[in-house]
Amino acid sequence: MTNLLAANGCRVMAVDLAEPRRAVSTTVGAERVVILASQNLDDEVRAWTDGFGADAVVLATATSSNTPTEQAIDACRDRGRIVVVGNTHVELPWKSTYEKELEVRYSRSYGPGRYDPAYEWGGADYPLGYVRWTEQRNFDACLHLMKTGSFASTP
What are the DSSP calls for 87-102, one per residue? Predict the structure, then answer.
């Protein structure tokens, strides 16, 4: 995901639990990497964003803990956006979410067509004029980025 964000001009801060993955995050386009065991996420976000907070946080975790959700809320700027991608516990503390007027969105897998049997198994497609980014078109775009070298591979 970092690859796609960076390839589209986004500044990316990656957050991880394990120091050995720092190099991977940098290789795939993260401008800054925060390792939670040794760095303070709030301080790093504020320094990186000149005190404003992140425009958007992609919450790509898989846990029953609400800690990543709370960290995402803290990292967002006023009226920022959280996009939940992973299978993670999301319980929004009313006060902090309300005060920042955050937008929270959920991403359902690969895109339009993912849960449509006619699309996935029957070979049906959606007209480009109605659905620009289907599951297949997303995949094709990733392959194109890999072919042109715009999509960094992990070491």
Answer: S------HHHHHHHT-
